[in-house]
Design goal:
- The protein is an alpha+beta fold and 307 residues long.
- It has 2 domains: 122 residues, Aminotransferase class 4, branched-chain amino acid transferase, N-terminal domain (D-amino Acid Aminotransferase, Chain A, domain 1, 2-Layer Sandwich), CATH 3.30.470; 159 residues, D-amino Acid Aminotransferase, Chain A, domain 2.
- 31% of the residues lie in helices and 29% in strands.
- The chain contains 8 helices and 15 strands.
- Strands 7, 8, 9, 10, 11, 12, 13, 14 and 15 form a 9-stranded mixed β-sheet that branches. The chain has a 6-stranded antiparallel β-sheet with strand order 2-1-6-5-3-4.
Length: 307
């Protein structure tokens, strides 16, 4: 068995060794996937876009009627403690980590799907060393396929980041069997939604389009950043309905997420997009976001040290 990269995890308010026992098999997160989570980057001990991730976490908790037993300040402190325990909070060289914050409805021995009142949620924060996309991936781009799984844009579950990830695993297996890197979901009426763990971007001319909210996708924080900052590289950002024909007519394509950032896509369902190579606009967008993350982490870490 591969040992965890992190020395500790933060469990229900305290640090515990990562290789020890943590959760009961009767926890509803394990039994039913009755849990929500957020995943994000940390640099120099600064959790990137934490406010946005916590806001989405609270929306997910409210939708699932799970009561959070900790304040946001406790979670932020837990993240800092975990990063420090693993020495991933350094200024220079900059510490880089990926964080996962999960909230399960908690312990329940009844095996019932119906939640029981009075339980206490289980809260876990984990960390891993941040591994950026490889140089080969950025140079060659990703190959995607469309999944046979279809999304219902009217489903209330589409905007909730739960730990019930079976359809994502299935789609990744589809991609693997097809010799691709990832899969894209379509709605029941054929609109593009998102990839398994990221949002979709298409560039045509000076317009960078991403599927609009309400089409069965999760509102990503990196996506929100791009909508606000895409103009920094001369692109007009647009949120609109997109179909496969739009992807095949695009000059460039990419997927984006808070941890991996912006990663170019060069092939969809065996057909090249644009030149079939990563395009300069998407790579410029990636550089702009990585530069912003670095500058933001310096600003926040410096301000903290001055207090």
């Amino acid at each position: 068995m591969t040992l965890p990269a992190s020395s500790h995890v933060w469990l229900n308010g305290r640090l515990v060794p990562s290789d020890g026992p943590h959760l009961s098999v009767y926890d509803r997160g394990f039994q039913l996937g009755d849990a929500v989570f957020e995943a994000f980057r940390a640099r120099r001990g600064v959790a990137i876009e934490l406010a946005g991730h916590l806001a989405r976490l609270h929306r997910s908790l409210a939708s699932m009627a799970i009561e959070m037993p900790f304040a946001d300040a406790d979670l932020e402190r837990g993240i800092s403690e975990l990063l420090a325990a693993n020495a991933w909070d350094g200024m220079e060289p900059a510490g880089d980590a990926a964080i996962r914050l999960m909230v399960s409805r908690g312990y329940d021995v009844t095996r019932s799907v119906v939640p029981h009142a009075g339980g206490t949620a289980t809260v876990v924060i984990q960390a891993w060393p941040f591994s950026p996309p490889s140089a080969a991936t950025l140079a060659n781009g990703l190959r995607l396929v469309t999944s046979v799984v279809r999304r219902d844009p009217n489903s209330p579950m589409s905007g909730i980041k739960t730990t019930s990830r079976a359809e994502l695993v299935y789609a990744r297996l589809e991609a693997e069997r097809a010799g691709a890197d990832d899969a894209v979901f379509l709605t029941t009426d054929g609109r593009i939604t998102e990839a398994t763990t990221s949002n979709v971007l298409l560039i045509r001319g000076d317009v960078c389009a991403t599927p609009r909210l309400g089409t069965g996708l999760l509102a990503g924080t990196a996506r929100a950043w791009l909508v606000e900052h895409g103009g920094s590289v001369g692109l007009q950002m647009a949120e609109q309905d997109l179909r496969l024909d739009d992807a095949f007519a695009a000059d460039e394509a990419a997927i984006c997420s808070s941890i991996a950032g912006i990663v170019p896509v060069v092939v969809l369902d065996g057909r090249p997009i644009g030149t079939g190579k990563p395009g300069p606009r998407m790579l410029a967008l990636r550089s702009a976001r990585e530069d912003w993350i670095d500058a933001h982490s310096i600003e926040v870490a410096t301000a903290r040290a001055a207090v």
